[in-house]
Amino acid sequence: MEELIVLSEGREDVDVYEAVDSRRAVRAFSDEPVPKEILERVLTTATRAPSSGNLQPWHVYVVTGEPLAELKRRATARARAGDPGDEREYPMYPAELTSPYLDRFSAAAAQRYEALGIERDDPDRPKKIAALNSEAFGAPVVLFCYLDRTMGPGQWGDAGMYLQTVMLLLRAEGLHSCPQVMWTMYRKTVSQMVGADDGLVLFCGVSAGFEKEGVPRLRTGRADMMETVSFIGV
Predict the structure, then answer these.
(1) What pLDDT sits at residue 214?
(2) How far apart are CA 202 and CA 144, in angstroms?
(3) 129: part of which helix (H) or strand (E)?
(4) How many other CB atoms are there within 10 angstroms of residue 36's CB atom?
């Protein structure tokens, strides 16, 4: 029997497996606006995401409309000018990736560049990639997830579970998303726009909206389950 969940009163059941399987990082959104009631429904239901000690350590700013357009303009101007970005508050990846992690990273990066039409040896590749990211791939909504600076690694893990819950609920609504750690490169610009105080640290942004039609659809591969899972006593 398929596993089903009820998202909220009055809505039809949604197949959990289908939501997980169809979720992917979309990098081409239409400009169709996302109704506020959908965002409210998703974020209200996402409050049920697990967190150790029920701390619920996340704080999310939902940005759309003209404020998002202005944020995109400011961030894109920095990207096109070759601005290396603000000082990192946490590393995006370990300083030295080794196999198999480096292999997976390289394979996925090659797929992304090809789908975006950016040649690997293009000298302007960093600027082009940064500009596409800072435009949120055309998404009409970006959710910026912050955590209190007093939180530790456990709470960062909680925030990841929360955002995964949000992204699956967006799929249930027929929407797509793209988590973007890139926004931390322009964290000062983001914080100025959303009004986040110094006591908060930007975890990432999540672009959301309806997928743009007629563009190549990228679905990166995944390691075989047995590469990452060990059964003991089964």
Answers:
(1) 81
(2) 7
(3) helix 125-134
(4) 11
